[in-house]
Automatic annotation (TrEMBL):
Keywords: DNA-binding. The lineage of its organism: Bacteria, Bacillati, Actinomycetota, Actinomycetes, Micrococcales. GO terms for molecular function: DNA binding; DNA-binding transcription factor activity. InterPro entries: HTH_MarR-typ (IPR000835), MarR/SlyA-like (IPR039422), WH-like_DNA-bd_sf (IPR036388), WH_DNA-bd_sf (IPR036390). Residues 156-178 are annotated as: Disordered. It comes from Microcella alkalica. The keyword DNA-binding applies. This is DNA-binding MarR family transcriptional regulator.
Amino acid sequence: MSSLQHDERVAVARLHALLELLPTALDRHLAGHDLTAFEYTLLEALDEAEFGRLRLSVLASRTNATLPRLSRVATGLERRGLITRAACEEDGRATNAVLTDAGRRMVDAVRPTYEDGVRSLILGGLDPTGVAQLADTAYAILDRLDPSRRFAVIAGRPPADAPSDDASCPADPRLPAA
């Protein structure tokens, strides 16, 4: 028999269900654009970056992805002409992902659909207090999952290898605006 209390088991079961259902639901919402939610998140991170360019390692942190996953997805986006890869001028060992004009147009075209999906699937049932509670609860869990602060969106500070001009993450309200 589990040592977890009933309310703890219910909370964990609901979190598991959310983690399984949400990515698929967001992907379905974007299906008309032939883009997954993760692909959109990657393109959006590049769109928000100065000059539409980020090191792959920084982009992985911004999107909460492992470098191998990010590289696979970036390859697909590159084949579609939405991004290119370029050598990093500051570090010859590193590679940058660069948003193309087609990628920027894709972000602009998909943004309203993505935001509609986020509002209808996640935020629609929450008042402002609920949104704040969701953000705080998610942060508390993510902070425990990532004690080394590898993921920029949840860490409250940029990853160690982020250039100084990439010191903010627009997705984390705990960080000062750039």
